[in-house]
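We emphasize that the prediction below concerns an isolated chain of 180 residues; any contacts that depend on oligomerization or on bound cofactors are therefore not represented. The input was used exactly as deposited, without trimming of termini.
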Amino acid sequence: MVFRSYRRGAQLFPEHYEIFVDDIPPPLTPTRICQWYHSQFESPDENQRLSALKRWYIWEERLSRMSLPPGTGDITTHYPLPLVTCLAKLECHYLLNNCFLTENYILDNLHKISHLPGTIIHGRYDVICRTRGAWQLHKAWKGSDLHVVADAGHTTSEAGVALRLCQATRDMSRYLGALG
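Result of the prediction step, given as a token string:
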């Protein structure tokens, strides 16, 4: 499910993937990669722990964005440690647990919210979540609007995605306000 993004990322960014998996003994399965990083995040060796946290964060940055902001994306960049730590540990924990969802959980349980309106916003060049998944959700959820942002990847900080999120929030606020 979630780990498919690593294979796509490795195909698109082999030079970054090589850095991401450096030092991990084979076989390089998604589960093994996450297990290795999880153990590194808990290492008593501060240099080892910080190196792993930064490598995870940089890999996720590369996968999430169409283009990296100036000054980001290489191993020498100084990211705020609390941000790096939270993101890396949280993502690794979720991935090790399949995001706490069974395969097709959302589609299989859509009937519980199908009476509600919703907005699906998806970056056209999202390497982490496939556009096909957003399309399938939209087709199954009759009350949904789908907006595929042409010049965006996965992150909410890309301008087109941020704009659509603001518009969707405004629209939902108006909808709820009209309900009284």
